[in-house]
Amino acid sequence: MYSDAIVFGIPLIGAFAWCLIYPAYRALKGSWRSWVNAPPYLPWQASLTNTWPFILLSMGLAIVVVMPSLVFEALGWEAARKFMWNGPFWIPWIGAIVGIFWWPKSFGPAWYRTWRRAGGKRSIMAFTESDIAAVRRLPEGKRRRRLEKNIEACRSYSAQASDQPVRR
User: Fold this and answer.
1) What digits encode the pLDDT tens for the residues 53-77?
2) For the segment 17-46, what is each residue's pLDDT rounded down to a tens digit?
3) Spatial CB neighbours of 60, under 8 Å, sequence gap ≥ 6
4) Cβ proximity of 23 and 79 under 8 Å
5) Measured CA angle at 17 (ends 19, 23), to 5 deg
6) Contact indicator for 120, 49 with CB cutoff of 8 Å
7) Which of 76, 80, 134, 163 would suit a FRET pair with 119, their CA atoms being 20 to 30 Å apart?
8) DSSP 34-82
9) Are 124 and 118 in contact (CB under 8 A)?
10) Is 157 in contact with 37 (CB distance < 8 Å)?
11) CA-to-CA distance for 10 and 59, rounded, in angstroms?
C-alpha cells in the first residue's frame, strides 16, 4: 500500500537531517560554544573562523527541503520530484558553500555577534564574564555541568590559540 520511499526513506532521511541540524542548533543557540575556539574541523575551510555549524545547518536544511520529493516519487509525480531536486534543494547549498569561505556576522546569534565584535579569533573566549556568571547561577544539573564543561573547553582552546602564531 505504501511505497518504500515513504515507509523507510522519510524516517531515514529525517534522522540524517536531524544529525546535521541538531549539533548546528546547539552550537548556534549558545549551549555549545567551544567550536568557535577550536581549531578548524574542516581541513578545506578557507575562513579564519570556524563556520561549520552554519555549513551543517545549510546541509540539513537542503535535506529537509528535498524530503517531499520522496512523497512525490511514491505518488508518481515525476515533474514535482524533479522540481524539488533541480530547484529548492540547491538554495540551502549556497549557505554551505559560502560558509567554507566566510560567514556574515549579522547572520549569527547574539552571543556569536558579541564574540565577533570582540575580535572573533580563536584566542578570544566565547563566553563573556556575564555569561559565566549566569551559568554559575543555574541550579545544579545536567545543563549547568554541560555548560561548565564547555566553558573549560573554550578556556583550553583559547589558551592553546594564544600560544600559536596567527594564521593569515
Assistant:
1) 888 999 999 999 888 888 888 888 8
2) 999 999 999 998 988 999 888 877 667 667
3) 17, 18, 20, 21, 24
4) no
5) 35
6) yes
7) 134
8) GGGTSPPS-TT--SSS--HHHHHHHHHHHHHHHTHHHHHHHHT-HHHHH
9) yes
10) yes
11) 16
Please answer whether residues 54 and 99 qualify as being in contact, where contact means their C-beta atoms are separated by less than 8 angstroms: yes
**Sequence-distant (≥ 6) Cβ neighbours of residue 73 within 8 angstroms:** 3, 5, 81
Rounded Cα distance, 60 and 42, in Å? 17
Cell match 527541503: residue? 65
Look at the block and give the residue holding cell 594564544. Answer: 162
Q: Count of alpha carbons within 13 Å of 143, Cβ hemisphere only?
A: 9
For the record, the C-alpha cell of 61 comes out as 536544511
Nine cell digits for residue 23:
549539533
**Would you list the domain boundaries of the chain?**
4-163
| 24 DSSP assignment | H
* Dihedral angle, C-alpha 124, 127, 129, 132, nearest 10 °: -150
Q: Is the pTM of this model over 0.85?
A: no
**Encoded amino acid at 20, one letter:** L
